[in-house]
Amino acid sequence: FGGYSCEDGRDVMVHLFEWKWSDIASNCHRLAQLGYCAVQVSPPHEHAVYANNDPPYPWWQRYQPVSYIVTSRSGDEAAFQNMVSTCNAAGVKIYVDTVINHMTAGGSGTGSAGSSWNGGDDYTNIGQDYPSVPFGPGDFNGADNCPSSSGNIDDYQNVDQVRNCRLVGLRDLRLGDDYPRDMVRGYMQKVIDWGVAGFRIDAAKHMWPGDLGSIYGGLSGSPFIYQEVIDQGGEPITAGEYTSMGRVTEFKYGLSLSDCVRAANGQKLAYLSNFGEDWGFIGGLSAVVFVDNHDNQRGHGGGGGVLTHKEPRDYKVANAFMLAWPYGYPRVMSSYSFENADAGPPSDGSGNTNDVQCFDGDWVCEHEWRQIHNMVGLHNAAVGEPVANWWDNGNMAIAFSRGAKAFVFINKEEFSVTQTFQTGLPAGEYCDVISCDGNLPPCTGGECLGSISVDDAGTATVTISNTDTDPIRAYHV
Ligand code: QV4
Ligand code: CA
To answer: Is 230 a pocket residue for ligand 1 (Cβ < 6 Å)?
Structure first.
């Protein structure tokens, strides 16, 4: 479940957070051209609708399932199926964000597909009712196996609480039993049969590895699976408990990388020379890596401290390093702008999500930034090549090649740095893909700074000024 296959040498996924299925469908050809292998989509199941929340229709309502009917804020079943088939035809895979640990919070209401739901009692497992699955009280964990007095997870040091009690009050499914397992497996199999290639398993830390293994083991179609386990140390549950069943999101990666780019918490770029397992991360072949995600860019889910689109210069540096460095399966974040951390995507007053217009001020579309998508191209060109020719100044300037395929130089010093490098590249002329759109002359499409001529010995002289818009140069065959 941890292996993935991509078409045409593409090797990066993008999370199109809160995009509608119709917009993803019409963008898939473009995503293929930009070099993206796959799209992580927002949860497609029926979800709670919080019209009276402040602000109304928060993004997180989609992490509260009401049923496994595929009608959500992003569109209905027909639109979802059309997206999957359109993207598959373009060679772009769809990965579904899969919320199977729990259903809604307390209260009651009507879901996005019109189904009624009732979260039942706040302290016991009485009264839960999700008729469109159907789930009833017996399908939820309760006082017999959740050892907290509130019924919620109050202590992350207690493994039984983390896995059998309610995550922020969300009604916790009894996945040790066959029937709830069959229901969630049926949902996953349904979308596999429609052509979905993979799953992000939400809140995997809150489910027993054995229960997940049983769910995955009953699936046909060899989906790619990556599991959300926030392991930043200090808790008894570790990411390593899940790596035999699929990949795992490596949350240490984005925080450590952000610190290095900012020279924060004693870190510096020069320390990145062994970024990966030596830093206490899980094995690179088990990891999904990212600078920020939809939670920690807004202070949820171990949030804070990571670079986001709100600091664009440093964010581009962090993404450039991630995409140039051979550790993990990288995920690029694509966001909408927000002030309130609970605010849903750009929408009308009834919570109908707007069509995506990249760069209109609401849809940030980091995956369309030249400095990011051209590094996706570099990543794809360098797949399988080892890091070579590492250079650093002991502080905030670094450079390295990827075999004979790519060369990257970053200068976050407060001064200009000029250096003659061994680039590892074959002799020839190269355009900088951070400031240009092509990698080979004629260099066109952007500002086109710092084109280089690599001599027969593989060397070239490159300068990055501290006043450059982007303190990065990147070249590839
Ligand atoms: C409120 C109080 C709680 C109280 C509860 C019950 O804050 O203290 O216990 O009421 O009375 C929303 C609200 C949250 C509210 C909850 C229940 O934000 O305030 O609790 O609903 O009413 C997303 C959001 C959550 C949101 C949830 C469901 O981040 O804020 O909760 O959706 O709508 C841990 C986990 C990790 C998890 C992370 C956020 O280990 O797995 O927390 N990350 C994933 C997703 C994330 C999602 C969930 C899990 C849940 O990436 O987006 O949570 O599906 O680190
Ligand atoms: Ca659980």
So the answer is: yes
